[in-house]
Please model this.
Amino acid sequence: MTLMSKSEKYLTLTEISKTLDIPKSSALDVIQTLLAKEFIIVENQQAKTYKIGISIFTIGTKSIQDNNLHEAANEVLTSLSQKTQKTIFLGVPKKDKVIYVSKLEGNSPVQSSASIGSDNPMHLTGIGKAILAAMPAEEIAELYQNEPYEKRTANSITTYQELTDNLEEIRQVGYAIDDREGTEYIHCFAAPIYNFSNKVVAAISIASLAEEIREAEKKTYPQLVVTAALEISKRLGYTHNKLYKG
Model:
């Protein structure tokens, strides 16, 4: 693919074989694999020339988006961590899961067990519910059509009715709460992040021990996480001033 990206013309099997100094059979094996994955396509059936396919651009675009997300979020998350001294998470959706892509540790001796690269079901996390509340109803229904859902604590949401009611409440107040729903001792406030096309791409949360959170923090943390999420969204090109319609 590097060869094709640098070439000023579309290449044949023979040209690829000679340039890479490998047998035609080996070059053909590579080409067949890349064709199957749509990383390259046949540009001309008669001349049998090849060019880079759309899949490689999709991967490149995803990589750019991921890099942009981290670049847009880092400064804001660091500031949020310093203000609260709590653990700050950044997570992205993958089907019905949340993948944690950034974590800034708080000052509590007891920390969340979630680590960068780990995942959790969306309905059990503040980040996941913040994302779900921003998704179209048909997508939510498709992801959560099979009841009951995984239950980890007495507070876990297990039915579609419970989930949709909670998501509507999130849209009304502008942020999500995980009140010991995924872990017995963790409480989170979370808010969604959008990109330039107004699509939800991630969410952030302020996580703390449920027994440590004070009443004053319950009043200030929601606004802090909403402000931070909106700032990151605007850095990604989001043009609205609210995180949820309504």
